[in-house]
Amino acid sequence: MRWFPAALFLALAVALTFLTLPVVAIFVESSPAELLDSLGERGALDALWLSLRTTAAALAIIVIVGTPAAYLLATRSFRGKAVLVTLVELPLVLPPAVAGIALLASIGPEGLLGGAVEAAGVELTLATAGVVVALTFVASPFYVRQAMAAFASVDRTLLDASRTLGASEARGFIRVMIPVAMPGLVAGGALALGRALGEFGATLMFAGSFQGITQTVPLAIYDRFGTDFQGALALSAVLVAVSGAILLSVKLVQRSEVLGGAPR
Amino acid sequence: MRRALAAATLLALPLGACGGDDDEGTSSSAEKPRLVVSAAASMTEALGACSPEFADATVRLSFAGSDELAAQIRQGVKPDVYAAANTKLPDELNQEGLLGKPVEFATNELVLAVPKDSRIASVEDLTGDDVTIAIGSESVPIGSYTRETLAKLPAAESRAILANVRSNEPDVKGIVGKLTQGAVDAGFVYVTDVNAAGEDLKAIDLPPEVEPQVTYAAGVVKGAEQPQQAQTYLDGLLDGTCAGALRDAGFGSAP
Fold first, then answer.
1. pLDDT of residue B4
2. How far apart are the first and last CA of chain B?
3. Which of A163, A196, A218, B100 fits A139 for a cystine, CB–CB 3.0-4.6 Å?
4. Cβ of A209 and B15 within 8 Å?
5. Residue of chain B with shortest Cα separation from A208
6. A60 to chain B, minimum CA–CA distance in Å?
7. How near does any CA of chain B get to the CA of A150, in Å?
8. Are A99 and A152 in contact (CB under 8 A)?
9. pTM of the entire structure?
């Protein structure tokens, strides 16, 4: 029976063509000269810098809050845990427009907690902080999910051994669990980073679009789409290159990871 | 080149879908041909109301900023009808051989929109330090009409107003959303958008000397799959069910 491997190869060829053709077209249609030109433009640089800053801020929040939360969910069992995990993962399947509406309805000026946000003197809508909130909301489940899987697959006897030797749970978490789960955490971080970098709908609806304040690269691309297709293509090429570089460096880091951990 | 173009189209489609709403015509008869109408976001309510009654075809409406819809057509997307919130984009597409002769079918009015309990009463009130404003992005008609108007104001006033702009929205519905959600204090939109928003917003007329001429034009897309029905739909914008719906929404008749 030779048809089965042939079918596998065919499926891979179809998937590869479909997934790479649009990306290849971005680079074919924009010459290197145009790419440099568009990068020299003030608006493009502002968008790129804003995207990097807001994505870094969102990722920091996600890792600092998400890591202990994922650890708790992965290592404890309690009633209603499945429901809780589903709630945490829900933004993963929400369309960006729904995420935008949900953020407005909850912490927008007219939202449930809008008064409290305003009373606290925090400006979110139409402000850079609002972009960070939108990115954090849509990207965090990618990290938490992966981190939970990583923690859950750590051999429990390792942690038990550290406890037997007198280490506190906090120490076991920091010295044993995190290092062993590191490859999974890095992979989750990369996914969240990629999702945050590409965020569009929730940002536009919740934070608006203003150069240097809330206009991230995807919004700048959309802004150019109508009148400056070449500029939009060039900026897209930059975003693809940056995202590709992040993915690739994560793969390299994981390969050179000497700490072992869960094989993925 | 063909391959690259096809790929670009693939990219353009979901992008366009992000900005506007794709509305499926609700007509049930399956044997009728399908007519695809790309229309400016400001006509969402008017065309959404009349299109299900179009007798010759099941109308599928695609709303977004006029500039985005034009960019899709330039990238090879072929709706049957293109209806824009200005005459410039249809004229350009016509000269590029992508659109039949454009027909002016309606007028609209640029107004200052504010929440109904707002203390803002005129354009001059927009210069205050704590006022936040949303306008259209430069590339979309509502944004260029707004900039045209601001340019006619005294330079200092125009500068102060632009300094208060917090968001450049890709289409007019984005501005209305920012207004109704209380994210901004004021926005420049069409009078028809204020009507469509119901009780939430009120329109403040602009001084006649700065008010721009807002004319809507539409045409049959070259290579449309249903040129006959497209022409009938176009005629209906001037004189038919959709003309009535446009008047109901507050659009003026063609100049």
1. 45
2. 42
3. A196
4. no
5. B167
6. 26
7. 34
8. no
9. 0.79
